[in-house]
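Margin note from the TA: students keep mixing up input and output lines. Inputs are the sequences; the output is the structure of the whole complex. Example:
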Amino acid sequence: MFRTPRMLALALVALGSAALPAQVQKGGTPPELVFDKVWNDGPATFADMAGKVVILDFAQTW
Amino acid sequence: MSDENEKLIEDTFITKLGAKYPFVKAKGCNQKYGIKFFPSVFSIDATGVVHSVADDRMPGEAEIEQMLQAVSLAPKLPADARYDPIRTMWEKRDYAKLSAYLDKMLAAPNLDTEMQGVFEAQKQELQKRVDAQCKRAERLGQGPDYLASSEQLNRIEKEWKGFAAAEAAKKELDRFGADVVIKKELSASKALAKLQSSFDVSKVSQAKKLVVELEKFAKKYEGTFAAGQAAEQLKGLTKG
C-alpha cells in the first residue's frame, strides 16, 4: 500500500536533482552574463568587471 | 543580480529595499551559475577566478581586503621597468599627467616600434575610459536618485579634469543646479539622509520616533524619490 507513494517521492527527488544545473566551481572561470538592465551605476557589461573584485549576490523576490 | 522582470526588480530591490549598490538583470543568470537557493553569493578575484561559491561562507571583510590588494587600476602593460611611470600614473588616477606623458613619448624622435605600439595602445585605453565615463555621466544624469548621482558626478569631474568626461559630468551637475524639480529631489534626499542618520532603529523607542518623522517626511516631500524611499522604510518599520 505504501510502496507507490514512496517510489514516487524518490522519483521526484531524482528528477529534481537531474534538473538542477551544476554550480559554478571555486577556482574556475565565472560564466559570462549578458546584462539586460543595470541599476545604480553598475557596469554596462560583464567584461567591464574585469580586473576588479566582484561579489555576485543572486537575489529573488518572494 | 536577478533574472526576474525589470519592473519587479526595480519595485522590490531598488525602490522598496533601497539598494544603493549596482543591481543587474541578466537573463538566465541563475541557470548559468547553478543557483539552488537565495541569496547565493559568489566572489570573483581580480584575476577573474571564482574565489568562493554559494555553498561556502561569504568572504569576510579581511578576505575581501586581501583580494582588493591584487587589483590594479592600470591596464595590461608589458612587465618592463620602462613602463613603470605609466603604471604609476594609472594607479594614482593621474589621467591628465598620463595623457601629457604619452603625447610627449609618442612625439619623441627615434622611438622604437615596440614602445610606440605600447604608448599608442595606452592612449586608446585612456580614450576608451574617457568615453565610458562620458556615458556614465549621462546615465547618472537620468536619476532617479539625484543625490547619489551628484556625488558620483562630482567624483568624475574631479578625477577626469581636462577630459570630456569632466565636462560631461559638469554639464549634468549644472543641469541639476538649474532644474527646479531636481533641486527639490536633492533637498528631499538630503533631508531624508539626515533624518535617517538621527535615529538608531535598533532601539525600539527611536524606531517609533522615526516612524512618526518618516510619516511627516513622506507628506512634506510627496511625489519625490526620497518620499517613496521613506514610505517603503515606513512599511518595513511598521510591519508586524
